Amino acid sequence: MSPAPSRLGATLREGERVTPLELFFDLVFVLAITQCTALMAHHPTWSGLVQGLLVLGMLWWAWTGYSWLTSVLDPEEGAVRLVMFGAMAALLLVSLCVPEAFGSLALAFALIYGVVRAAHIALFVLASPEDDGLRHSVLGLAASTAVAVALLATASLFDGLAQGALWALALLLDMGGPYFFGAEGWKLVPEHFAERHGLIVIIALGESIVAIGVGAAHELSLGIGTAAVLGVALTAAMWWIYFDVVAIVSGRRLAEAEPGRVQNEMARDSYSYLHLLMVAGIVLVALGLKTTIGHVEGHLHAVPAFALLGGIAAYLLGHVAFRYRHVHTINRQRLLLAIVLLILVPVATEVPALLALAVATVLLWAMIAYETRNYGEGRRRVRRPRVA
Prior knowledge:
Elements: H1 20-42, H2 46-69, H3 79-97, H4 106-126, H5 132-155, H6 160-180, H7 190-216, H8 222-243, H9 246-256, H10 261-294, H11 302-327, H12 332-343, H13 345-348, H14 353-383
Helix pairs in contact: 1-2, 1-3, 1-7, 1-10, 2-4, 2-6, 3-4, 4-5, 5-6, 7-8, 7-9, 7-10, 8-10, 8-14, 10-11, 11-12, 11-14, 12-14
């Protein structure tokens, strides 16, 4: 038997399952998502909404980078484990900066975020000593990361529209790096990659449950209790929409895709890019639920009404795009419901918040009932465990 590898670059992933350390790492991302919701709740304006989504985008891109990394390296072997702990600590500090990411802690956010990304790049470099394709891709990512961090640091010198524009440019260039530098050199374990993103969707949905408790503010009345139950029903519907069929089919298609450029581009587009739209939708819904629980007898203002209904719409549109990327067909009922929900946003500002939540929940479950019946035997075949 050969001795265990002692070099960091030799500790490559072999298993397909998500490891306990990866789940531990994701716990820090829970705080990051919570902080994004808090940022938007403390600034319930359109600019506050945009700020929260920009911060979420940057944090998401950091997280998805580590999901690619741990599809190459075994995170629980050797020094990698220690670097992951360090990255967790840095990500925690970044999360603590989120409420003032556009204010007094803007520069701190940029610099500590740079540390999170630098650790990720360094581990990727060590993972590719003899792989020229992977090394080329990593160096391209390092370049786009450096530009993004520099733009965030520069944005700390400004405020208002200029600051927001620099943040948007940083996010665009950072996320665009892997698209423009090509996908041929990346490596991944498809089963692990799909499972990792499914778990982060669960974590994001958990934030909606947390938002219900925060919004209740240690009170319980008939209205709050009803809103809480509806909130859980809404979150359960969003879980069903993803995990009943979509997660299973998409995971299999990724595993069956041709390894190399085809598989990597599918992973990049459908998971690294399009899952951000889904997660952003969930975070917006969490904001809407938090506000609704706190104002069950009143009306929602424009921003929280958009967060609730527009968040569901964004989640559904993410699914529409996700399916189109995989099978090049459009889920018409999800697209139609997303449009209907967006149309209902102005109406939601004129009716009690509890009614708006109830209508959204009923519409989602009606769509699920239609799809479950319509998929029929096809759904049962998909969900039936495959025999090796």
